[in-house]
User: Fold 4-diphosphocytidyl-2-C-methyl-D-erythritol kinase from Cohnella abietis.
Amino acid sequence: MSKIYVKAPAKINLLLDVIRKREDGFHEVEMIMTMVDLADRLEMEELPRDQIVLSSQVGFIPLDEKNLAFQAAKLIKERYGVKRGVYIHLDKQIPVAAGLAGGSSDAAATLRGLNRLWDLGLSRDELEVLGAELGSDVPFCIRGGTALARGRGEKLESISPPPQCWVILAKPPINVSTADVYGKFRVNDLKEHPSIPAMLDALSRQSFPDMCDSLGNVLEHVTLNRYPEVRQIKDCMIKAGADGVLMSGSGPTVFGLVSKEIKVARVYNALRGFCKEVYVVRMLT
Ligand code: ATP
Assistant:
């Protein structure tokens, strides 16, 4: 019986801007997203019966229809009339509800994996369209690399990858709901928007300092004002010498970018004093 392994990397937003609130209640965004080398690992195996079964080593995520990997398996199975079953084991390494798109990346990896396991022959574009039905970050997680995302986040354009550097991720022990953050966000209160052209220019020139200078996330003030521990992490990274620091997505994870290895230990040690979940990874370029 065939078995495959698929990786589901975490994403960070180098830039997140909100353009307007749409009539349908969603926000129109412009984001620059990229993958980091911190990934969930999915093991997928054919089942002799027509059923989707999910397991994970972590006990606090749903393993039924509420799980995005389960939803992805159900969607592709029903859409293409597949009468076969699959067992999926989710080895979770990406912190949950962290602003790192862990669930969306699992959904994307499930679609990619089942396309292979069930020989469906779907193109990347077809998988992206399917992924958009599951969540606005799923198409990007299917495509991977670095992309400019528009609309609700599903309209993608691949762009130059960031220059190689270290990424230190720190997640405080709080859960932040994306819906809550957007609910408290008022686009008309924004005094300035981060510059997409400046970030695109920095990436195309592979300029690490300019990339750090162009980081921006308009949701940051909402989460920082509500959760002092997120602000404390941000301040600590800056003080310890990280070259660029930003909250990812709606938070609460904060990432610090560092170009020189010698600085990594300093930032890591400063954070470890009061934050248990700290990861040191590389950009996936
Ligand atoms: P987003 O920014 O899209 O809200 P996130 O990275 O902040 O994503 P996730 O790790 O995707 O957050 O988890 C958000 C919620 O989704 C969790 O509370 C969890 O119960 C649920 N969830 C559903 N499927 C998964 C999955 N495969 N992995 C982790 N959480 C999942």
Summary: Residues 61-62, 66-69, 96-104, 106, 137, 178, 249-250 surround adenosine-5'-triphosphate (CB under 6 Å). The mean pLDDT is 96. The chain has two domains: 3-158, 166-282.
